[in-house]
Every structure is written in C-alpha cells, then in structure tokens.
Amino acid sequence: MHILQLDIVPKREDPLMTDTQYVATVPFKAIGTSWLLFIFLGGFSAHQFYLENTGKAWARLLTLQYLTIAIWIDLFTLNKQVRGHNAALAAKTGVPSPTA
Q1: Domain membership flag for residue 48
Q2: What is the domain count for the chain?
C-alpha cells in the first residue's frame, strides 16, 4: 500500500488577490532519472526503488536477479514502467501525468 503525500503550496496569480488558491504538487517520476539510476546503479535495483516498486527491488536485490534476465527486461520496459507509475499516480490524485 502506497501512501500519497501531497505538498500543498499557495498559488498567487495576482498580488492583490484576496482569496488564496492552493495547488497540489505531485511527485511524478522522470524517465531520464530512471535511466540514469538504471545505468549507474541498476545492479542494486535503484531504478525500482525510485519507481516505488520496493517489493520488486528487494526481491531482485536479495536474490541476485540483477545477474539474470531481470536486468534485460528492465532495459526494454523501463519507459513503460515510468509511464505506468505516473499514470497510476495521476489516477489517484486527478492531476494530469506529464508522461502520458
């Protein structure tokens, strides 16, 4: 179960505006960051931890799956995994995903 914590920040478009509007910022994951983690720390499943796939990351780390086909699977599906994570987060929050 993932707990979503939103940072609520006030948004002021006009300094003379009397009502304060609030905008929720959602921590979407970047494809570029995922690839950098995969390239440099992929053997430690850092990209899976980044995508909040902690169960998959620990399983791969503890069973040494980074020496097997799992790393090749991630090589071809990493973009899809990031988009899936962002789509699920967008569905929970109602905020449009930047990687849709």
Answers
A1: yes
A2: 1
